[in-house]
Amino acid sequence: MLVRLDFSTTLSLLLLLLLVGSSRAQVGVNWGTQVSHPLHAPSVVKMLQKNSFTRVKMFDTDASVLHALAGSNIEVMVGIPNTMLETLSSSMHAARNWVESNVTWYLKYPKRRVDIRYVAVGEEPLHDVRLDAVVGAVKNIRAALDKQTRTRDIKTTIPFSAGIVTSNSFTPSTGNFIRPDEMKTILELLSDSKSPFTVNIHPFISSVKDPSFPLDFAFFDGDFPFQQDQGNNYTNAFDAIFDTVVSALKQAGFPDMPIIVGGTGWPTDCNLQANPQNAERFNQGLVKRIESSRGTPLRPGQLHAYIFSLVDEDRKKPGYERHWGIFQYDGTRKYGLTLLGARELENVPDVEYMPARWCVSNDATDGLEQRINATCQQVDCSPLFEGGSCNFLTVSERASYAFNSNYQLNDQATSSCDPEFGRVVRDDPSHGNCRFMRQIVVNSAERERLCRNVLAFVWLTLSMLFI
Ligand SMILES: *[C@@H]1O[C@H](CO)[C@@H](O)[C@H](O)[C@H]1NC(C)=O
Ligand SMILES: *[C@@H]1O[C@H](CO)[C@@H](O)[C@H](O)[C@H]1NC(C)=O
Ligand SMILES: *[C@@H]1O[C@H](CO)[C@@H](O)[C@H](O)[C@H]1NC(C)=O
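^ thats the input. predicted complex w/ 2-acetamido-2-deoxy-beta-D-glucopyranose below
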């Protein structure tokens, strides 16, 4: 019986492999960590697996995230922050250390291996790093990866903004790099190691920056009258931008370089077009596009793309930048995205909340506005402004929103709900879509581990000083 069971399991696995093959459609997601209260990483990984996200892109090498991804079979792109590129470019030693502690370390134990496939060198680095430093960093990281058999197959890539390409009157077939000479150096480098070109595509930002941008063109299912270009019909910005990149690569002499969409998505707050309906429409269109395996007119086939992003990040720039998550800060989904295999998005499990307490205005009016302003210097009040989910609140409710955000940011510390203006209540004061947050408990095991890591690091540094 046991043997038969095993045999049939093997058979179905084999069948599955045959069916799915190597060209299986895969949905990726960006896992950013600029948050004051991180979700318990192992719970996030459980959620990723349940929802069949098979690819994760990081902007750093956060140890708790990488430890949680160990043994999960999720493909990982780790990231090097822009601020490190100068150092990595000028020092081979620094590059080797970076690879050793941020990549090789996670490949050591076969059962707890992190499936690192790519190293992203910077994130849209040309905005604030010199070209030579970007090139130098890629060269040194590449050399460090090539030194070991274990890391040789890991690709290096650079996530660029789509702003580095341009075209004549928006026809994708005329796409070219804005600085073709600079790009040539980088493309040769990528091509030498058979690495992919990575680009971020954000129709939302195009629509924010250009008031004449037709909103419907931002969506995959838009009704926008198509734009014809050499027999291809473009009905959405994603295809048009992607194919502009395809043409630019062709023009530069790299027509076959694989393209990864490093980040694409839609925020849900703090802008008139940023809301859950539009975000669902965009991301659902993206998932369907990935599932269809049809690619774009100039690059038919599988699309390798990462949704931007996983959760809202409260340490980013105030405004819509903080609200790109498909999940809220607490791991609850914002809308019912249907994923590959027609399943609905599931929440992050086992999230623990702080007690049901909120800080609201006690209806004192003297100096209230000043106090709101002062509080909003400390916490993000952008949902209160035009296009925000809490824009409709009265002055007193706005005060409550600000005071509560501050109270939750400070883990409900009594001192963070000033009795002169506020009081603590036990009923959720949220108004419809305007949600008054209740903080999550940062997993204590996680905290301990982080502390241990810091201690170990201090110890290591000290011991190096004294050797
Ligand atoms: C590993 O990467 C992180 C950034 O993600 C960096 O802070 C750290 O210094 C790196 N380790 C080494 C040895 O370079
Ligand atoms: C684009 O649209 C035109 C006009 O409807 C149609 O004739 C043509 O076949 C379309 N091209 C493609 C590639 O779908
Ligand atoms: C508070 O801020 C708003 C908007 O920035 C401003 O219009 C108002 O004058 C400020 N009020 C006080 C009392 O500082």
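The CA atoms of residues 219 and 281 lie 7 Å apart.
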